[in-house]
Amino acid sequence: MNNEETRDQITEELMESHKKLSESFIREGDIMVPVELTAIPRVQTQEEFIREYMDTKILPLFATKSGAYNVSGDEFGTIRSIAVKHLPEMYEDNQWEAMIKVVDILLEKHLSAIAKGPSVFEYEERLRDLLIYTFFKCRFVTEMNNRPMSGEIRTEMEICHG
Fold first, then answer.
1. Is 19 exposed, middle or buried (0-12, 13-18, 19+ CB in 10 A)?
2. CB 104 within 8 A of CB 31
3. How far is 47 from 39, CA to CA, in rounded Å?
4. Spatial separation of the C-alpha atoms in residues 10 and 90, rounded to whole Å
5. Chain-centre distance of CA 14, in angstroms?
């Protein structure tokens, strides 16, 4: 075999080897992944799960809940009216703290139910409600800390952890 034949044979072997190798990998984004690894179902990352869950479950529910609590253009009207009725002194001193207390009661209702375990009726729906009410509390704490009030402004940690 002369040099040219040897070179052609080596080139052919390399091409065949490259073809076999490239068939054993697939591209996922910028990465080449061995085919045998792609047979394992891809698991959604926690960040992907949270983004999808927020988009498909939480944001639509938040829109519904926000609409349900809206009274005459006051997006917290129902919560506010409960605070005025049942916590008038607290509301007069600090409306946001009183509304946080109302939301705490709503949260407690769901926490008590889910404490019984995942077989509880509407378990996942209750977990979603917990998230929504927690967002309400975060908003109230933010509003409270951004507005002047009598006495010292308390931090989110102080409000949430008593």
1. exposed
2. no
3. 23
4. 86
5. 50
Which amino acid is residue 99, in one-letter code?
A: M
Tokens, residue 58: 């939480």
Q: 99-107: long-range contacts at Cβ-Cβ below 8 A with a sequence spacing of 24 or more?
A: 99/136, 99/140, 100/137, 100/140, 100/141, 100/144, 100/159, 103/79, 103/133, 103/136, 103/137, 103/140, 104/137, 106/133, 107/133, 107/134, 107/137
Residue type present at position 34: P
Instruction: Output phi, psi for 25, to 5 deg.
Output: -130, 150
| Residue 160: per-residue pLDDT | 53
Is the backbone of residue 69 left (phi > 0), alpha (psi -120 to 50) or beta?
A: alpha
Determine the pLDDT at residue 112. Answer: 93
CA distance 133 to 104: 8
Local confidence pLDDT in tens for the 162 residues of the chain: 677 777 778 778 777 776 766 666 667 777 766 666 555 667 888 999 999 999 999 999 988 888 899 999 999 999 999 999 999 999 999 999 999 999 999 999 999 999 999 998 899 999 999 999 999 999 999 999 986 544 444 554 455 555
